[in-house]
Amino acid sequence: MVGEPSRPPTIRDVAAAAGVSKSLVSLVLQNSDKVGPAKRAAVERAIAELGYRPNATARHLSQRRTSTVGVLLNDLRNPWYVDCLEGLAATLGERGYRMYLGDSRLDSRTDDLLTQGFLDFPVDGLVLVGTMPLTARLQEATRLVPTVVAASRDVDLPGVDVIAGDDSAGATLAVDHLVALGHRRIAHIAGNAGRFAELRRDSYVAAMARHGLDPRIETSDATEEGGYRAAVRLLSPSGDRPTAVFAVNDVACIGAISAADELGLDLPRDLSVVGFDNTHLAQLRHLWLTSVDIAGHALGRRAGEALLRRIDRPDTPATAALMPATLHVRGSSVRPG
Asked: Which domains does the chain have, with CATH numbers?
């Protein structure tokens, strides 16, 4: 009786036999110089012993380029990321690169699975967008693959470029604008995670101190629900209720608007509001929200350009750049009534 033919060995079999990860086997197939001689020898020995033959995709990988980029971001529900991704995709597309997107909003294990998937393909570069846990797997990925961080100030790793907005200048613009209108009781709905939220909060506090004003801060998770709950705490009837609120982002600011409306406040006569990010939501006519702009589309393009340079010249020193902040004044901020 003729037995069923055994399946051909896979890259997973090679990795197991060599005692390494699949991503490292992929790097050997690409003839990458990022693999040490001992591990390279172990992989090559396993390939020979198993009789492994790369498939068409692996043969393509052996040419060292796949014309793909992995993008990991922390929450696609935030509309600012759409602007950033559009700029990034436009720049990469001009060079013939395709973008694979993963949302790391869930737990750290999901982050690692997405990262490993990018390495296994493998992609030519990584873009990390926004604040996310810097796991050991993600740090390893930044050593193996050219990486750029966009819209985050939380990563400081060798060989990783950072392109972010000027959060400090943006928060200062918001406070100065409200003070110029005559507001003195200005509250801040702060974020609870990420260096960007810290910078916006700290700059709000510094700007208030410069104007001789007392800060008042309620912390949220930078979502609409979080902004709503923070605003309820801020705006509950009292003698010192703020006349203006500056929120960590547009989404939280919309939550604050909902809370103010439910509490019977007349916006903007009773309460001026200022957001951050200048998303398309801020530009909707029925909101017409004053908001700080850190140029999401331009930031995405700048991140794409930085990644392409790093793919071409992976050993160049890491750079950091801040996109300038501007304030778009609309109907949500007026002189106090």
From this structure: 11-61 (1.10.260.40), 68-165+296-324 (3.40.50.2300), 167-293 (3.40.50.2300)
